[in-house]
Amino acid sequence: MGSGCGDYESLSRLVERMAGPYAGQGFGPTGAWSPPTDVFETATGVIVKMELPGVRSEDLSIVLLDDRLFVRGCRKDPDAGVKLRYHQMEIAYGGFVKVVTIRMRYDREGIRATLTDGFLSLLIPRAEKPAAGRVAVEIRL
After folding, report:
1. Is residue 94 packed enough to be buried (19+ CB in 10 Å), middle (13-18) or exposed (0-12)?
2. Which domain holds residue 131?
3. Which of 5, 24, 57, 88 falls 20 to 30 Å from 97 in CA-CA distance?
4. How far apart are CA 72 and CA 24, in angstroms?
5. Angle CA(27)–CA(9)–CA(22) in degrees, nearest 5?
C-alpha cells in the first residue's frame, strides 16, 4: 500500500497472528483509518470508549481474546458510486480494526457494550480470580 502508511503489510500480519483463531474471521487491518479511543480505569474495571460516527452496530465485531480487545468494523460511504468532485475530503470510510490491551483480570460474564450517538462504550469489570486457560469472549451490542 503506497499511501504513506509505513509497513502496512507487516502490521497486518502481526495483528492477524495476535488474533489467533479469529484471524480467519477478518480480524486484521482492513482499512487506513483508526477510530479515536479512550481507555481508562475505574474502581470497578476498565472502560473503553471509541468514536465511531456513521458505524452501525451490525457493522461491528467485538472480541476480547485473553488480554487483547479486537474491535473490527466498517464505516460505509453513503455517496459510494456517485460521481463527485471533492473540494475537501477528511472523512475516512471503509474497514478498520482497533486492538486495545486490557491489563487486568476481568469478569468475562459481566462485559457490557453499547453504541450510542456515535460512541462505542465497553465496560469490562474487574474479576477476583483469573480465568483458567485461554479466554475468548465475543461481545454483542
Report:
1. middle
2. 8-139
3. 88
4. 13
5. 15
- ∠ at Cα 119 (72, 35), nearest 5°? 45
List the end-to-end C-alpha distance of the chain, in Å, as a whole number. Answer: 33
pLDDT per position as a tens digit, 30-41 = 446 899 999 999
Please state, in angstroms and rounded to a whole number, the distance separating the CA atoms of residues 138 and 71.
Answer: 10
- Per 3-state DSSP, what percentage of the chain is helix, strand, and coil (rounded to 5)? 15, 35, 45
> ∠ CA(24), CA(47), CA(72), 5° rounding?
20
- Show the cell assigned to 96: 478498520
Give the CATH number for residue 133: 2.60.40.790
> Is pLDDT above 60 for 116?
yes
3 is a domain residue: no
Contact between 127 and 106 under an 8 Å Cβ cutoff? The reply is yes
Q: pTM value?
A: 0.74
Give the 3-state secondary structure of residue 77: coil
Paired sense of beta strands 45-51 and 119-125, if any: antiparallel
